[in-house]
Automatic annotation (TrEMBL):
Its EC number is 4.6.1.17. Keywords: Lyase, Molybdenum cofactor biosynthesis. This is Cyclic pyranopterin monophosphate synthase. It catalyses: (8S)-3',8-cyclo-7,8-dihydroguanosine 5'-triphosphate = cyclic pyranopterin phosphate + diphosphate. It comes from Tamaricihabitans halophyticus.
């Protein structure tokens, strides 16, 4: 079996399998992902002021994102469960209608944390929607993407400007 086949989610017959990463070296790995939640200006102003009917939207979304990063192996088929060293979820009011989400996840491990960072952003965005949907059903979630990753055999990668 070649190195590429060994690290593939497909076995020799084309069936999905869990990749054996035991031969890979443990390294420090970090991934940063981001996304955006767009809503009516008054909805974002309500969230910013902390006056949403369901309470602290950003605090709850931050916690939900961190918890999701820790449980990514349970949510995404064939994703390795990882002992995460650190996870952060931050928010930026990018315009009067757009809230940007950034997640940074770190691990000492044999596989990367890209999925954990992407999951953190996704769940944080869904939590914002859930907590604000009573005042704005037109909220949209988008632009979820990996921004950068470091560590591992493939080294570092950074998204270039689109």
């Amino acid at each position: 079996m070649t190195e590429q086949q060994r690290l593939s989610h497909l076995d020799e017959t084309g069936q999905a399998r869990f990749v054996d990463v035991s031969a890979k070296s443990v390294t420090v790995r970090e991934a940063v992902a981001g996304g955006a939640v767009t809503m009516a200006p008054q909805t974002l102003a309500t969230i910013r002021a902390g006056d949403a009917p369901k309470g602290d939207v950003l605090g709850t979304a931050r916690l939900a994102g961190i918890m999701a990063a820790k449980r990514t192996g349970e949510l995404i088929p064939l994703c390795h469960p990882l002992g995460i060293d650190g996870a952060e979820v931050d928010f930026e009011f990018a315009s009067e209608t757009t809230l940007r989400i950034t997640a940074r996840v770190r691990v000492h491990g044999r596989t990367g944390v890209e999925m954990e960072a992407l999951t953190a952003v996704s769940v944080a965005a869904l939590t914002i929607y859930d907590m604000a949907k009573a005042i704005d059903k037109g909220i949209t979630i988008g632009d979820i993407a990996l921004h950068s990753k470091t560590g591992g055999k493939s080294g570092s990668w950074t998204r270039t400007a689109d």
